[in-house]
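Training component of the fellowship. As part of building independent skills, the fellow (R.M.) carried out the full modelling exercise for a liganded target. The chosen ligand was adenosine-5'-triphosphate. The inputs are recorded below so that the supervisory panel can assess the work.
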Amino acid sequence: MSIIENALALAKARGERVPAGTRARRPGADATVSVETQPTRQFETVILNPVILERNCVLPQVADRAALRAYKILRTRLLRRLTAEDWGWIAVTSTRAGEGKTLTSINLAVALAQEPNTHVCLVDLDLPRPQVAAQMGIRCERGLGEYLLGEAEALQVIYSCGAANLLVIPNNRPFDYSSEMLGSPRMLELLQVLETELPQHIVIFDMPPLSSDDALAFAPRVDGVLLVVAEGQTDRAAVAKSKELLGEMNLIGVVLNHSSERDDAPSYY
Ligand SMILES: Nc1ncnc2c1ncn2[C@@H]1O[C@H](COP(=O)(O)OP(=O)(O)OP(=O)(O)O)[C@@H](O)[C@H]1O
Ligand SMILES: [Mg+2]
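Fellow's submitted model of the complex:
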């Protein structure tokens, strides 16, 4: 084993992200890649209910043109950045609760998965308040909680959302002791499964707000962090504090949610 291979193996064992440039690139990122590298593993399929999606403003059941346009812009800018940096794992957080992290994570995942040759896995990593399954109308017996408690295997809690290139790891069990769970050997094992099984997927982790230490503790394991800010609800001091907190990590961008200029649609900068 070479020194580099050794270092990568050590980083993997510690659950850290493998440095950019050493991972398999997403198909489409390199124009010379012509072979269709569609993942072959089959996951259990969940059927999404259009009525629930529409009620919760989840794509593709969004009629608001401004919102659709905003998500497309968000997708394109993010994809460009991820491709340029060879990044794949993103954590979505905010300064406070209720600013739109989960909705942004879901709609971003759906919008990205609509792009050709782009595969996405959305992980509900808000352990104290899991909401991805509820907002997407996903009903499943086994989710992340069951996996973390040893009641299911990792591959049993990854679900396919039908035709789109979208996988989801939902969770129906809230955890009070979320920090311990985030750093647990089961969690590290799951991250290794994602690295191994889904090397070409963009993985989006819906996290708790920065008021808990979960997002900060988890940030070194992802390539970058997306900060959701609710216009008119997040004060400047809180955003400045978050930027300070995120200083040591890659802040990929800030998503302005509930933007009054754009009909409640998110924007990105
Ligand atoms: N741009 C938007 N337009 C309309 N409704 C929205 C928008 N953003 C969020 N919501 C709604 O506001 C509520 C809170 O959003 P969401 O669950 O995404 O926030 P959150 O930051 O994940 O909250 P928490 O901190 O509790 O996890 C949800 O009911 C969601 O559907
Ligand atoms: Mg949430």
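The panel noted the following from the submitted structure. The longest strand covers residues 224-230. Residues 101-102, 126, 129, 131, 206 surround magnesium ion (ligand 2) (CB under 6 Å).
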